[in-house]
Amino acid sequence: MIGKVRRGTRVEGLLRYLFGPGTDGEHRDAHVVAGFDAPGELEPSWHPNGGRDLRQLDALLTQPVKQLGERSYRKPVWHLSLRAAPEDPILTDAQWARITDQIMDRVGLAPDGDPDAVRWIAVRHADDHIHVVATLARTDGIRPDVWNDGHLVREACRAAEDEYGLRRTAPADRTAARRATRAEHEKARRSGRTEDPRTTLRRHVQEAAAAARTESEFYELLHEAGVLVRHRYSQRNPNQVTGYAVALPAYRTASGPAVWYGGGKLAADLTLPKLRTRWSANSPPVSGRGLDERTVRAYLRTTVRQAADSSRTAADFLAHLDAAGIIVKTRRSIQDPNSITGYAVTLPDHHDAQGQPAWYSGGKLAAALSWTNLCRAWSGIPSPTPGVELSADERRAIYNDAARAAAFATAEIRRHTVTNPHAARDACWATADLLHSAAQATGNHHLARAADAYDRAARAPHGRIPHPTPSGNRLRSAARIMAIARTSGSPGIQILTVLAAAMLTLIDTIADLHHLHRREAQSDGAKAARRSLSEVIHDGTPWFTADQSRQQSPVAVAMADVPHPWAPPVLGVPQPSPGGVPGTRHSQLSRRVR
After folding, report:
1. Which residue from 196, 384, 455, 560 lies 20 to 30 Å from 251 (Cα-Cα)?
2. What is the pLDDT of residues 300-347, one digit of tens each?
3. pLDDT of amino acid 32
4. What 3-state class would DSSP assign to 358?
5. What are the extents of the domains in the chain?
6. Strand-pair partners of 327
7. In terms of DSSP H, where are the helices of 212-292?
8. Taking the model in full, what pTM does it have?
């Protein structure tokens, strides 16, 4: 059952609509089923011409508002629409009356047994829905509080679903993204846009948040995507940024200014304070733990190149690397200890076989990144060709590491599903980052649809930010590496299928987690994302033999790619082996690619 609250100024116009024929003659047998008095006493009388006389009912509802005078709300008419699902049984008038009584009691407008509560009526003019009209003024001269009424209505609707066996709907847990209004949809249609601006901006912000390692990089990525950004500053400290808003350059009001949306108007986890938790000092932006050496080398080379291009001096260069979470070791001149003669970089938690930090000098990453060539470039002297493009092996390593991160998160979520579901929320949240980065890096439309569908399944209830966990941090690291080291070329269907298969099993596990804890809206979102990911694997079926493509379902393919299958072995599905990354099927793929 769905309830929607609206506010208005005039009771008379609303009553005429409810007791009238409707916009398309859809209203049938409009009558009062409940209210502040007996329904028979509140039922409007009939005119001799066949219409309803609404004057007395209008006067009864508006009288407390007039007594309240200037202390009244600007919009004192409270209008609630309640609708049951099409497959639900048709409720009787007595059942609708009980439901509306419970809602008015839970919201606090008309508590049970309170003779001075607000005046209200419930009008039914169809089988599947009902309207509740109340005026926000108590008869004892007190203005009622309607704060949080939408969430209280949602709780009452869920209680009615349990009592009458109706279709279960999602709780008001504030995990759903803000929907575009009808006006936004209509304006987008008139301007020839295939998508409303709110949805477009939310996707841009999510992609930038997934890729950014710092707040300044977040704003830079939004500018690169063609998004306008406006900051909100503290009134106490004018230099402190407390919020942001985004807009599309081509989407403007009739008078000319851009239409701005704050982060909180896009989604609950996109406010600036919650985004800042992604860039907190509790964990490095990218950790080298568990990464292939080729992945680390490619990421370091790309990051160092970007830092060098954004710098004009050695101090700027070192500051950019520090902000990106890169550990730098400098070599000093023996004659002049203040003079830098070389440098080496590494990632936190990236060690060699002896357990020592594995360092990479700039010249080993690329000839143009040696300290001598960087100093020449900052002095205006042309340097050698940058040479920072990714090789096929490096691209393969990046996607394989992302698949390993997904497999690790899958195992962690399974371990916490029953014993400690709160510990699994961080991995659920970080999975969205990996999906968005993969979709942006590859340009694959199936991945883009999966990222959009998964949106709600990522968020914890009531906008809470989960406590960071190793599995979540590893997924975020994989997302940032994939975003920072992306190339314009396609990664190849074989490489992409490996990641999609591991992500498929991860999202299946997340769907099971949400379903077990009765979060059906989040479970449905994960299942929708799973269907889109399955299409990525289906696109790769020409790579299999004819017999394999007939025998292996997308789930079977995913199980073969993840080291920890979530179900017993299936006949015809190859099992993981130590020689492959992350499984036997990938070993065969790697040999064929080479």
Report:
1. 455
2. 999 999 999 889 999 999 999 999 999 999 999 988 888 999 999 999
3. 95
4. coil
5. 2-164, 182-279, 293-378, 392-593
6. 346
7. 215-224, 263-266, 272-276
8. 0.75
